[in-house]
Write a structure and sequence with these properties.
2 copies of one chain form a homodimer.
Chain A lengths: L10 E6 L9 E4 L3 E9 L6 E9 L6 E4 L1 E2 L4 E7 L4 E11 L1 H14 L9 H4 L6 H17 L3 H20 L10 H8 L8 E2 L3 E6 L6 E5 L15 H13 L4 E4 L11 E2 L3 E2 L30 H13 L3 E6 L2 E2 L4 H5 L15 E3 L2 E3 L3 E2 L7 H17 L4 E5 L6 H14 L4 E5 L4 H9 L4 E2 L9 H12 L21 H21 L2 E5 L38 H13 L10 E5 L4 E7 L9 H7 L28 E7 L6 E6 L2 H4 L6 E6 L5 E5 L2 E6 L6 E8 L14
Parallel strand pairs in A: 2-10, 11-12, 11-23, 12-15, 15-20, 20-21, 21-22
Antiparallel strand pairs in A: 1-3, 3-7, 4-5, 4-8, 6-7, 8-9, 8-10, 13-14, 16-19, 17-18, 24-25, 24-27, 25-26, 26-31, 27-30, 28-29, 28-31
Helix pairs in contact in A: 1-3, 3-4, 6-7, 9-10, 13-14
């Protein structure tokens, strides 16, 4: 079947960014410059032009940005996303007859026979019909004028008239008659009759905290200063100055709802024999006191909760709630909406099981319920309830055990009212499943960092998650520990292992979190050998923590959060780059605010090589690429070197990729260890490091070009 | 907005093959096994099942193939394309409740308390409610039965009844009650109520010659045995035995239409001063005698043409016509359809120009014509005209100067009637443009091979064009020379260069062509230094060739075509693999019919590692992957080694990737040089080669496992 319009000659392909062929929006952060690229071309030798169309979703009028031709038919443009929320963009491309005419005219003029030339070859060139060419140009200018009015139209018409007047002169030799001003003016009124337009692509823009955040998880019931009673929201408030001083910006609380009594858990995941005394698991949600929209009475009232939310905000932080869509047998939904659960032939409701394990205190929801619409609405209303109470950050428990279609709908719907809400997916599962949740709307995701301890596995995993295509939809939030996971390396590595893991977390990822105070107090005893469960886990009982203990590594964590806040390089993951070290126990990586090198434009390439043989697919000429305009001030460059061995000193030679650091070949530069304040003088690519895990297992080095005064610098290579 | 059905829990992603998100069909060859893969998963722990749906386009009923789970949520299946033409396929996936129940039941049975066990831990296990589980299974079997009838339904219902009877027994300990037969029977009647289905994807299936073809181009006007006259179709017929004996299967003729008289070209691209004597360029199509549907009167009549087409077929070859959509000023379209051309303000028609060059004998067609519909129809009718005369192969001249949308429509439309037509795109232009023509329907494409002479550039280019994604839509047809291109390496490299280039062409690519007899007669004089144009080019004049000349390399070409026909490895490009050589002047590569290793299935991975920690995204366990069933007989393996230096002997050590050759570590194997018939005994990875360009610049080695009798084998390493 013939297309309705066969004269659209331009082709637009391979637009980036796009996620799964545009099925999901790509993600960016408020204030980002969004770089858009595509392959754009037409048949024949005519020139094409293209523009980027973009707007916040829902706005009627497109905004426009011209696209720049790069080599080999690639084009690029960009725009700044100045508003959080949904954006759309697309590309238009068309054959630009006026620009083609200008280009051809220049070649034609250069080929004019010159009767006064001493060179006979110049004199004998065939005639070039310049007056006819001028008339063609004048017609194109008239057509351009007809697409506008006022002064611009007048100017274009006048340029056409001048061309015709020149043509009438019938001169022996003509100069190029079009001013840059007229070229640019004409480009503003292109003939879009046969412009090709790509399908709209979506972009989701989050606020900055989606990219850069430091999470602190604690169980509020363990916060009472009085060891005889259950902690409260008010007790949590008392800890806020300390947590804020450590430099965290999100305080995350496990579920704060009433805890079911049926099959309530006792210490260490036993079935409670004393439901009156045992507190149960906060994830067994719902009792006679209410469900996901109620508060555990022992924690406080809604007034206490509202006060806490405000107090957290007053300390420069945000409160993150845990949303776990599952029910204890006492949850009101169980009687009010029995159709949301799976019923067994014996009339009982199916509880969670993984034989031989039984979780009788947990009823999963049935996403194949005939009343799935009612279920979806109610689950959404849980978020809405807390959003209306001022909560803007949700950590969602096991989202991968709920239908993907539900999340995509729910998150998109909630965001139409509250585009600033952040959702963290607690899904420790297979890669496709984790990525699919992120594509479907989750702002941040738990990662495999918790189990990645070797150099090669850390490096390959972070390369995967911090580069496109994954980084276009997935934002890692790395956790050295969680209430569910006490990794073997922490069980056996002692204090050094905790230091290594927190340094890796804070410098590899712009978003991270710890489950405290277990982390800073080096809690490392598993329930049994080979298990990742904590002994006397807070999931099942109240714990008392001596936050002031001398062995606490809170001072290190405080310092790390200070370093993160002071160094923008650490606030994004996209620049992460690994450097080579000749010791497999030492890992080295940098992050920086140096903008990536801009691709060479077609004009630059043509200037470099006028003989560029593009029609034979020759490789584009190599040459200096124009760096993007640098941001104000010098770039921020952080180079981190970590000894991964918790037991032994490790030393080796780092082989730096100097471009990543903005350092030139053979240059001497300053590195300041932000953990110790010591400056070293490094030189060129190869530099020596030695790290003792029990003293400090890492350098976090701020790299700066050498200042004129280098007195007082230490040369680490000569120490 | 909520979806219409929220209970579709399975997700299908990343289906391969697909070209540009399904915008274009992927390509395969008749008889191919098409491997389809996708990521498929669901929320939670329920098992998913999936099937492949496929059919020739236009058939009403889908055909089905079950999909197999691989590790990390990847699934695969395949089908054989037993018909040329358009196919469609897609994937359905759903949560398989019966299979989930079977899996859970096995775990549940394994966790039964065993009152007779000597192990107290076994005795004290909590009860597992087996009768309830059996009743759930019986209900699932009843539901499955309701989706079929007859014997299958009866068998399923009877299995349900047996389960209920077992449940009623209330035994102390149960065995697994479901036979493999019932498991497989139930799988045949899945509950598809909430099955997800991906969008249809397209596949285009060509006949075998699309993949494997050897083209011989000649100018019919130069074929007269009588030097005083213009060659004819009858003269061409006399050459057919010789061309067929050389092993070619496509005889390609430059345009055979009437040649315009206005601005007719004389020898060496001059403007003819003697249009009566000069023959002009066959690409200046159209005169008073007719246009694209007419024959040049000097070549013969339609009866002669039809006779030639049949004679070519009788010699086991096919005739390829050249379709060049451009017109001489005398072409009938110029007066009949002036709106198909660009008119200048002075009333003249725009001829082709690239100032200072003028091509007044060529009028390009205007694809922005207001009558583009009429133009498209007429151009299509040109193909239809020749298709109806029995032509099935077209080489299209400069397709990139005609609108892409036209080609996509025209080729698709022609193929609805003649799916066996092969289109070769003569587009020597930028990569995106060449690829876009291939995506839009061109069967084969000219390539940059003509200009790729160095080892690295050959290697990287062939790696690009013979692997996905490019190989899913682009099929290279490589030409060492064309009437337009006498590459510098042939101008200066002598006979050895011609031998090198023809050996590279015939062994690197399954489809290739030469412009003869210029090639085999080593024609190498350019019109001037630095030009790729031939002196006295046949494009502008009749040439006389002494095909029997002693210096002809026709015998080598004949041998190469014999080798290609005898060795299936050389008839496809997908297995091409480059091996390392320690000499930059020696290139080494293999092609084979060894099937690629099959990816490990989930079942295999689970058998290898029952502790497979998939929920933590652990890397899949490595282990032996099951090779696909090998084709009948031993695989065909060809290893080619070429000295790229036309002047000097080159020698070096080849470092073989033995897996690609089907050879084991430390194995001794036989390689037979198919150019000389000499056998060598090679051993393990590292083997020595030395090649003298003037004797024979290459080995084309057939690799075979060592036979028991190795007497008479030469060990090249000890020569």
């Amino acid at each position: 079947m013939k297309p309705a319009e066969g004269r659209k000659r331009a082709v637009i392909e391979a637009i980036q960014p796009q996620v799964d062929c545009g099925r999901y929006p790509a993600r960016r952060i408020l204030g980002d410059r969004v770089d858009i690229s595509a392959a754009i071309f037409s048949d024949g030798h005519d020139h094409v032009a293209a523009r980027l169309l973009y707007k916040p979703e829902g706005e009627r009028e497109w905004r426009f940005a011209p696209m720049t031709a790069l080599v080999n038919d690639m084009w690029s443009s960009s725009f700044i996303v100045d508003r959080a929320g949904a954006w759309v963009f697309t590309i238009q491309a068309w054959v630009d007859h006026f620009e083609t005419w200008c280009y051809d005219l220049k070649k034609r003029l250069a080929a004019q026979p010159d009767p006064s030339s001493p060179d006979p070859a110049k004199r004998d060139l065939p005639p070039q019909d310049i007056p006819v060419a001028f008339e063609i140009g004048a017609q194109l200018l008239d057509q351009t004028a007809s697409r506008t009015k006022g002064a611009d139209a007048k100017q274009l018409k006048s340029a056409a008239a001048s061309l015709r007047a020149l043509a009438a002169e019938n001169a022996a030799l003509y100069d190029y008659p079009i001013s840059l001003e007229i070229e640019q003016l004409a480009a503003r009124y292109p003939d879009l009759s046969f412009a090709a337009q790509a399908s709209d692509l979506r972009l989701w823009v989050d606020r900055e905290r989606a990219r850069f955040s430091s999470w602190y998880e604690l169980f509020p019931r363990s916060t009472s200063p009085d060891s005889s009673r259950h902690g409260t929201f008010a007790d949590v408030e008392l800890l806020l100055p300390e947590i804020a001083a450590m430099g965290f910006d999100i305080l995350y609380l496990p579920p704060i709802h009433p805890i079911g009594r049926a099959f309530r858990k006792g210490p260490n995941n036993t079935i409670s024999t004393n439901p009156g005394l045992d507190e149960g698991s906060p994830w067994a949600i719902g009792s006679a006191e209410g469900g996901h929209k109620a508060l555990h009475p022992k924690l406080g009232t809604f007034a206490d909760f509202d006060h806490l939310v405000a107090a957290v905000r007053d300390h420069g932080m945000e409160l993150a709630m845990d949303i776990a869509f599952q029910c204890s047998p006492d949850h009101p939904w169980v009687t009010e909406h029995p159709e949301w659960f799976i019923h067994r032939p014996d009339g009982s409701i199916q509880y969670a099981e993984n034989p031989p394990k039984k979780y009788q205190d947990i009823y999963p929801l049935n996403f194949e319920s005939s009343d799935w619409r009612g279920l979806w609405d109610e689950l959404r209303s849980v978020f809405q309830f807390w959003i209306h109470r001022g909560v803007r950050v949700f950590r969602v428990d096991n989202p991968h055990t709920k239908a993907f279609a539900f999340w995509e709908w729910c998150i998109a719907d909630l965001r139409t009212e509250a585009p600033d809400v952040i959702f963290l997916a607690e899904a420790f599962t297979r890669p496709h499943v984790m990525y699919s949740l992120a594509k479907g709307g989750y702002t941040q995701s738990y990662t495999y960092f918790t189990w990645r301890t070797g150099k090669d596995e850390l490096q390959s995993y972070f390369e995967e998650i911090t580069k496109p295509p994954v980084s276009d939809f997935f934002t890692p939030n790395v956790w050295p520990n969680t209430p569910d996971i006490l990794h073997a390396s922490l069980q056996t590595g002692g204090r050094a292992a905790f230091m290594q893991r927190i340094i890796l977390a804070t410098t590899l990822a712009a978003s991270y979190g710890i489950y405290g105070p277990a982390f800073e107090l080096l809690e490392n005893v598993p329930i049994r050998q080979g298990s990742e469960e904590y002994l006397n886990s807070e999931k099942y009982q109240i714990r008392r923590w001596d936050r002031a203990a001398a062995h606490s590594i809170a001072p290190l964590i405080t310092r790390l959060n200070q370093i993160r806040r002071a160094n923008p390089a650490l606030q994004s993951d996209l620049s992460l780059h690994f450097h080579t070290v000749d010791n497999p126990q030492i890992i080295c990586y940098s992050k920086s605010t140096i903008p990536p090198p801009a691709p060479m434009t077609l004009a630059e390439a043509q200037a470099l090589s006028s003989a560029h043989d593009a029609h034979r697919g020759a490789a584009p000429p190599s040459g200096p690429s124009t760096a993007r305009p640098a941001p104000a001030g010098p770039p921020n460059v952080i180079l981190t070197v970590v000894n991964l061995d918790p037991h032994n000193e490790q030393a080796g030679w780092v082989d730096l990729d100097l471009k990543q650091l903005g350092i030139g070949h053979d240059e001497t530069f300053d590195v300041e260890d932000l953990l110790t304040g010591i400056h070293y003088q490094w030189h060129d690519r190869s530099n020596y490091v030695a790290l003792r895990p029990h003293v400090m297992p890492a350098h976090i080095l701020r790299v700066t070009r050498r200042s004129p005064d280098t007195s007082g610098l230490l040369d680490i290579n000569t120490l």
